[in-house]
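Long-time lurker, first post. I've been practising inverse folding by hand and with some scripts of my own, and I keep getting stuck on stretches where the structure tokens seem ambiguous. Below is the full token string for one chain I'm working on. Before anyone asks, I'm not after the true native sequence, just a reasonable design that respects the backbone. If someone could post their per-position residues I'd love to compare against what I wrote down in my notebook.
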């Protein structure tokens, strides 16, 4: 909700009006976490290390690029990685469901399909994360499982936790739902293994991630063109992600002349009718997450702009090294 990130009188009034409900939400979530941590409620321990990539706030913070980056880093070091996801928005006929790069995003959800396409790692979706892990391990020799989201899913035990933070929006007004955007209070950061800031350094950051675009890719043909080739053209841009303005701002910083833009809901279900109002005589840019849902009705002037997560610092090297050591230790224990 927009008032979470505003400081006008109306936003402040709404925050305090909803604060009793936020307090109730906080008490329930803290009690639930405590019950799992004390073993009063049963939780699942996977036979291989599990890494959660999540966030404290609702909305897009850049988790998916981090998941892709982490999978690729481990693959480059010879580690067999599997990915699980709740599969938000998916309409699969049954769960758990393995995701293939040629699947229909309606069946799989957009983010799991994007991860599968970019990494070629086995991906499984299910609202039941234990079932997803067991299904993956029954079909693939995974040495480590990366969970896309699930920081607050304490029913699943985890070995490492990564929190991704949008440096621009951060924690909004600092209140938990519904008075603010937080699923858990800010102090939760003290217990996670790694905090990654998307876009810039803040007082909470341990590592800064930069999302770097290089090319635009044609949805129909797969042709790649440097973004600078579009510098003299008028562009339409659409984005159905957690923070659409981040995509539009990124294009503008690259000297792309965005003359028309449209923000859609995160996980937006697209059809061709939604695009009828846009100028068909100028290129239309979208995110890679949008492109996986628009591929089958793509038009000749449609392009998507993939981004690569750049995470290069001592903290990232230490995290990867510690995780690989944990994976190797777990593999030896399993072998015995």
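-- Answer (accepted) --
I ran through it position by position. Result:
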């Amino acid at each position: 909700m927009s008032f979470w990130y505003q400081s006008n009188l109306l936003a402040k009034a709404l925050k305090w009006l909803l604060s009793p409900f936020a307090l109730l939400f906080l008490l329930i979530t803290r009690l639930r976490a405590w019950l799992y941590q004390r073993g009063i409620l049963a939780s699942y321990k996977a036979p291989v290390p599990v890494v959660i990539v999540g966030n404290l706030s609702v909305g897009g913070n850049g988790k998916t690029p981090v998941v892709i980056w982490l999978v690729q880093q481990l693959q480059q070091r010879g580690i067999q990685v599997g990915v699980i996801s709740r599969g938000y928005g998916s309409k699969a006929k049954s769960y758990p469901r393995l995701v293939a790069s040629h699947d229909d995003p309606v069946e799989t959800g957009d983010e799991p399909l994007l991860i599968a396409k970019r990494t070629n790692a086995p991906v499984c979706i299910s609202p039941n994360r234990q079932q997803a892990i067991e299904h993956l391990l029954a079909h693939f020799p995974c040495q480590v499982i990366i969970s896309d989201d699930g920081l607050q899913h304490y029913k699943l035990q985890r070995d490492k936790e990564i929190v991704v933070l949008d440096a621009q929006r951060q924690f909004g007004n600092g209140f938990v739902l519904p008075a603010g955007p937080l699923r858990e209070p800010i102090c939760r950061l003290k217990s996670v293994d790694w905090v990654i800031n998307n876009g810039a350094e803040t007082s909470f950051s341990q590592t800064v991630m930069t999302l770097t675009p290089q090319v635009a890719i044609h949805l129909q043909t797969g042709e790649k063109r440097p973004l600078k080739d579009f510098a003299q053209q008028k562009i339409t841009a659409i984005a159905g992600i957690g923070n659409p303005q981040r995509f539009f701002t990124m294009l503008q910083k690259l000297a792309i002349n965005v003359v028309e833009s449209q923000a859609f809901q995160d996980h937006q279900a697209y059809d061709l009718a939604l695009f009828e109002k846009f100028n068909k005589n100028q290129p239309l840019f979208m995110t890679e997450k949008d492109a996986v849902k628009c591929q089958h009705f793509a038009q000749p002037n449609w392009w998507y702009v993939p981004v690569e997560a750049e995470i290069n610092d001592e903290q990232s090297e230490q995290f990867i090294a510690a995780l690989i050591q944990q994976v190797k230790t777990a593999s030896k224990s399993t072998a015995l």
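A couple of notes from the structure itself: The mean pLDDT is 94. DSSP finds nine helices and 15 strands in the chain. Happy to go over any region you disagree with.
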